[in-house]
Amino acid sequence: QQIYQTQKLADYGFCFDEIPLGIKEGVNPETAKHRSQTGSKIFKQQDFDACIASTALNIKEQTEAFQDSATKAFYILQGNSSEEMYRWFEGGTKVLENEHYRYIQGLAPADTCIGNGELESVEMLSACHRIYNDFGDRVNPHIHFLGVGSPSRLLPVIFLAQGGYLDSKTHVSFDSSTQSMSLIMGNLVMPDGRR
Q1: Where are the extended beta strands (E) located within 31-115?
Q2: What is the pTM of this model?
Q3: Could you tell me whether strands 41-43 and 142-145 are parallel, antiparallel, or unpaired per DSSP bridges?
């Protein structure tokens, strides 16, 4: 509830998603980048449905907290395929009512479970496309890619948008820590390409 009050000072707040992931045996959770490296994490299929329900309840609570503000939530999508990301959103329709969707800005597919390649970007976009086709009356046409910022990951989005796969009204945004972490860690790219 305290974080929801802080989020109300912003235009957008991201939901609290319950992520069905575990760490592979032998990986040290203190030192490994287990959420960003596919080689150190494991998708927990047995927890998937419970995580869908928990996330939907979190979004319900969050959107109710936003009702006296202009802040809107992003519905984070988790899953190991486009079908599972679709099921993630569909499961929320059993918990959320029309009044809750008025406080949802759009979809935020995450690569946490699915992986971080170009094909995964296509899978994430495919899930959003299907959700908008089936539930477009409930959520704004805004897709925010979580953790995606490299040109190779965004190229499929650009090409699919240009090809008409996305509705022309769809707003696409993204975030990535690559640029800011480069400055923090001392990595600087000079105009001539030297690091």
Answers
A1: 41-43, 72-77, 104-109
A2: 0.85
A3: unpaired
